[in-house]
Amino acid sequence: MKYECPHCHEKTFTPLQKALCGSYRTMGKPCPKCGRRACNGMTGIYFQSVTSIAMIIAIITIYLKATERVHSSMLIGAIILGYFVVNFIFNMFFGKLTEPIRTMR
Ligand SMILES: [Zn+2]
């Protein structure tokens, strides 16, 4: 399974390469064939907003209910790690590649 480059329309990006392209707000990564930059589109940004809100709510809840400090900070660390993993996996399998708004020129 490969993803289409927004410039040359060849299927040049593997799911891992697509995830490494980053979000719409980043510079993206160059296509192996045409060398022009691609990044993940708006779907990834929406998903990221939803997961970051969920993460903040979870962290606040843990803080308010925490009785044992060490345990809760470990839990918060795990939630933050989970947030990055979930967004990375989302970018691997969902959404389309698009042209970044920022360019290197
Ligand atoms: Zn290309």
Account of the 3D structure:
- By secondary structure, the protein is an alpha+beta fold.
- It has one domain (3-98).
- 52% of the residues lie in helices and 12% in strands.
- The protein contains three helices and five strands.
- Strands 3-4-5 form a three-stranded antiparallel sheet. Strands 1-2 form a two-stranded antiparallel sheet.
- Strand 3 and strand 4 form a beta hairpin.
- Residues 5, 7-8, 10, 12, 31, 33-34, 36 line the site of zinc ion.
- Zinc ion is lined by residues 5, 7-8, 10, 12, 31, 33-34, 36.
Features:
12% strand, single chain, 105 residues, three-stranded antiparallel β-sheet, two-stranded antiparallel ribbon, alpha+beta, binds zinc ion
Order of helices and strands: EEHEEHHE
* Content of β-strand: 5-15%
SS summary, helix count: 3
What's the helical proportion of residues? 40-55%
By secondary-structure content and strand pairing, the structural class works out as: alpha+beta
Name the average pLDDT.
92
Strand line-up of the largest beta sheet: 3-4-5
The stretches of 5 or more residues where confidence is low (pLDDT under 50) are none
Instruction: State the total count of DSSP E strands.
Output: 5
Gyration radius (Cα, Å) is 17 Å
Largest sheet: 3 strands, antiparallel
The tally of structural domains comes to 1
Distance between the termini: 31 Å
Shape category: elongated
Q: Can you list the ligands bound to this structure? A: zinc ion
